[in-house]
Structures are given as structure tokens and as C-alpha cells.
Specification:
By secondary structure, this protein is mainly beta. The chain is built from no helices and 14 strands. Strands 1, 2, 3, 4, 5, 6, 7, 8, 9, 10, 11, 12, 13 and 14 form a 14-stranded antiparallel beta sheet that branches. The chain is globular, with a radius of gyration of 33 Å. The relative contact order is 0.15.
Length: 247
């Protein structure tokens, strides 16, 4: 008998898929980017305070030399300035206030003299005013109380006590050229009056020994100190100029 062909299998109609709505994505906050650390309490347009800054200064008088300045231990309210010479390193702590920057110690009397050791007891005022106060005619003061020792001949030692009063004034804005470049800089004239008493071998100086140091310093925006000239008894004692600045 003939075999009948099998009937073709009809496709089964499946149910139409049910449409579903894709879930609305939940908005995510933007990924924070790594912004440079700023120190609003310390950074100053005319005295930049930030990590990895290096200033190199050239001393023209009285003897030619070079030293570098870097900053360490930076916080919102303080930092340490490190001055590195060929055979000497000075570290000075600074306090940052809304009024400006103040060094914790005064180094004007030390002058790298091995026979005089001076310690700052306290300081008041500011050395660098807040950046929004930089304008011609601006005045401000700083003062320090000092104590120390002096080594005399034949092993005789003595004691030093004194004060330093520093009067500052922005007198002009001038175009200044230094090895690093030419800048429009504010010129700050400062008069530091050092008044000290000395006692040695049971003898006490009847009158204080008073010395006046006159300093003109030029500060450029975004760079800081670019030049300093110190005068004593109408004679230039030292000239310091910015040789390079890296940030």
C-alpha cells in the first residue's frame, strides 16, 4: 500500500511579547575630579604658599652666593619656610591669619654670626599683609621680643635682651628687572629698629644699643618676593634678586 505523506507541521503561534519599559536610570552625582590642594588661610597672591614651589635667589652683595627657598609642613593655618645655603639651612615657621602672614622668629640679628645666638620670645603683627590689602599707601607693623647670648674673648659670655619694631609701607608700584624676568611689582619700604641691652662680665650697657635697618623689597603677583635691598647707615649692605621660580 502507498504511504501517505505526513501532513506538514503547522507553526504554533506564540503569544506576542509583552512590551516592558526600561527602568529610568537614577541620576548619579558627578565623579569628583582631583583638584589642587588650596590653603586659603595661607596662600597669598604676593607670597604664594603651596607644595612644590622653589625660589632661587642670587645675592650680589656683600659676597656673591645663591640660596633656595622651599615650603614644607603646609596646613590651613601655618607652614615652614626653608632657606638652604651652601653650608647653612634656616627654617622659619609662619602663622597664617586673616590679617596676613607672620614669621615666628626674627633673624635679623643673627646674620650667621657664630658668636651671637638670638631666640625670639614672641612676635606680634604681620610681615605680609592679606592680598586684598596690597595698595599704594598701605602701612602695617610687626614687633618681636628677643633674648640671647654673646660669646666674648677668652671664654667670657654675655646676655642679650631686646626688641625689634618693624614699620612697613607700600610706597610704589614699579617695573623691576631681575635675572628671572621683568615684573610690575609693589615696592615695600621697611624700617627695622633693633634696640638691645647687653651684659657681659658683670657689666651692663647703660644705654640700649640701637640699630636701624632700612629695606626695600619688591613683590610680584603670583611669584612673591623678587628683589630685596638692605641699607645701613646710607650704605647698601646687600642686594638679593630672584634667579628662578619653579612651581
Amino acid at each position: 500500500p502507498a504511504i501517505e505523506p505526513a501532513a506538514p507541521e503547522l507553526p504554533t503561534q506564540s503569544a506576542a511579547p509583552t512590551a516592558t519599559l526600561a527602568p529610568t536610570p537614577t541620576p548619579q552625582p558627578p565623579t569628583p575630579t582631583s583638584a589642587p590642594v588650596t590653603h586659603s588661610g595661607c596662600n597669598n597672591l604676593y607670597y604664594p604658599v603651596a607644595p612644590d614651589l622653589t625660589w632661587v635667589y642670587h645675592v650680589n652683595e656683600p659676597a656673591t652666593s645663591v640660596y633656595t627657598v622651599t615650603l614644607t609642613n603646609i596646613t590651613d593655618s601655618s607652614f615652614t619656610q626653608v632657606q638652604t645655603y651652601e653650608k647653612l639651612t634656616n627654617r622659619t615657621n609662619y602663622e597664617c591669619t586673616p590679617q596676613g602672614l607672620m614669621a615666628a622668629r626674627y633673624g635679623g640679628l643673627e646674620m650667621e654670626q657664630a658668636n651671637i645666638k638670638v631666640e625670639t620670645l614672641n612676635g606680634q603683627g604681620v610681615l605680609i599683609p592679606a592680598e586684598d590689602e596690597w595698595q599704594i599707601g598701605k602701612t602695617w607693623d610687626a614687633s618681636y621680643d628677643l633674648t640671647g647670648t654673646i660669646a666674648g674673648p677668652q671664654g667670657v659670655s654675655g646676655a642679650i635682651t631686646g626688641t625689634v619694631q618693624i614699620a612697613n609701607k607700600i610706597v610704589a608700584k614699579e617695573k623691576v628687572t631681575v635675572p628671572f624676568g621683568t615684573f610690575d611689582a609693589f615696592r615695600v619700604d621697611a624700617k627695622a629698629t633693633q634696640s638691645t641691652h647687653m651684659s657681659m662680665g658683670g657689666m651692663v650697657s647703660p644705654q640700649p644699643i640701637t640699630i636701624e635697618l632700612l629695606t626695600s623689597s619688591w613683590y610680584a603677583a603670583g611669584v612673591g618676593l623678587i628683589k630685596t635691598q638692605t641699607t645701613l647707615d646710607n650704605s647698601i649692605q646687600s642686594t638679593v634678586e630672584l634667579q628662578s621660580f619653579n612651581k
